[in-house]
Amino acid sequence: MKQLTLRWVALVFALGAILFLGACHKKAAPPPPPPPPPPATPTASLTASPDTIDKGQSSTLTWQTTNATDVSIDGIGAVQPNGTQEVKPTESTTYTLTAKGAGGSQAATARVTVNAAPPPPPAPTQSSLTEEQLFAQNVKDIYFDYDKSDVRSSEQSSIQADVAFLQQHANISFTVEGHCDERGSTEYNLALGDNRASAVKNALVGAGIPADRIKTVSYGKEKPFCTESNETCWQQNRRGHFVYSK
Q1: Percent of the chain beyond pLDDT 70?
Q2: Which strands, in side-by-side order, build the sheet including 83-87?
């Protein structure tokens, strides 16, 4: 009987110890949730087509971005996340696109090369001009006062320059046309034009140009160089006009 009592006491003691230890043991806290993933980094691409142009031509920029809330291109400003834009740079230019978002920023570039304008063709040299071109460039008309056919003193320098050229090009033959302004009759101006053409020829012959190189003709007032009725125009029409003979 005594042993049975001891067993019950031991059992009660064991159960009490178990209950005591269970009461003292705290329940473990659950693990924290994992952190959210970081925001995605923006992506950006930018191309130019064509990427080489001549001055005055245009190129088209094309871009694409992702994860961006703010997109801009230097020199253009804010743009849509994806799009195209025509540009016409006057010199070679590198365009920079910047895409910004919660995950940072990303840049992309595209360069448009502008070819330099070709240099103008060289001016023709005297040696490359034809004889007729040289004649037109160097031989100057002789102008007359109203109703006069004598070569005025202010035209002597032109006569001398014409003589100098014609002496250097001895194989050139030419015609001196006599012209008048619109005032006066047709018959009168034909005669006046003939006198003016002859006056120019005589001045050239007197300076050493052979007479057989020079023909004369009068057009009077029939072929005006200027058609307005004022002194400025009339002065342009009172002339001895040189024409190259082919």
Answers
A1: 86
A2: 43-49, 59-66, 83-87
- What is the residue whose two structure tokens read 């006069």? 148
Cα–Cα distance for residue pair 11/9, rounded to 1 Å:
5
pLDDT of residue 142: 96
Residue given tokens 């070569």 in the structure block: 151
The one-letter amino acid code at 124 reads P
- Whole-number pLDDT of residue 7: 64
What pTM value is reported for the model?
Answer: 0.50
| Two structure tokens written together for 82 | 């994806």
DSSP assignment letter at 19: H
Amino acid type, 6: L
**Can you read off the two tokens belonging to residue 43?**
């992506």
Amino acid identity, residue 131? E
Sign of the CA dihedral running 135, 138, 139, 145: positive
Q: Is pLDDT at 74 greater than 80 in this prediction? A: yes
* Sole residue written with tokens 């992702």: 66
CA 155 to CA 147: how far, in whole Å? 16
How far, in Å, CA of 42 to CA of 66, rounded? 5
Mapped onto helix, strand or coil, the DSSP state of residue 203 is: helix
d(CA 242, CA 141): 6
**In this structure, what token pair is assigned to residue 229?**
């009725």
* CA–CA distance, 93 with 161 (Å, rounded to integer): 53
Distance between CA 154 and CA 240 in Å, rounded?
Answer: 14
Helix, strand, coil percentages for the chain (3-state, nearest 5): 35, 30, 40
